[in-house]
Design a protein that fits this description.
single chain; 5-stranded mixed β-barrel; two-stranded antiparallel sheet; 3 helices; globular
Length: 136
């Protein structure tokens, strides 16, 4: 009887953890240009720097975007500019790659391509080596 009670408690804990994790980041599978990709949708909850922000707590490195490091004046300006998007809705098409603790993806904010915004405003530049879907 004691073993059954322990198994029930473990099962309930695992169910709770799964619900909590799935509630924070809304990911789905979508067909894009003939390939299935994961799509992460949600609110930008934190800005790390010009080319990395968090969507519902999930860190996303923007694919094909090269911004100056935060340790430079230019990097701090890029980060400050990016902070205006905190609280906005993002849709990120994830490439399947990971770098450090971040997933990698192409993101749009309110229907506008984020990398293009950063390049058009001269905070960053495109990085063709990492443009895995040849968007730029």
């Amino acid at each position: 009887m004691r073993n059954i009670s322990i198994l029930i408690v473990i099962g309930l804990l695992l169910s709770f953890i799964e619900v909590f994790v799935n509630r924070n980041a809304q990911a789905s599978e979508t067909m894009i240009n003939g390939r299935t990709v994961s799509v992460l949708r949600g609110t930008i909850t934190h800005v790390r720097d010009g080319d990395t922000f968090e969507v519902e707590g999930t860190p996303v490195r923007i694919s094909a975007l090269d911004c100056p490091e935060n340790s430079t004046n230019s990097g701090q300006k890029a980060t400050q500019f990016t902070k205006q998007f905190k609280g906005k809705q993002a849709v990120c098409e994830l490439t399947g790659a990971k770098t450090y603790d971040r997933v990698v993806g192409y993101c749009s904010i309110e229907g506008k391509d984020f990398a293009r915004i950063m390049v058009d405003n001269k905070f960053c530049q495109f990085w063709p080596k990492y443009d895995v879907w040849n968007r730029y």
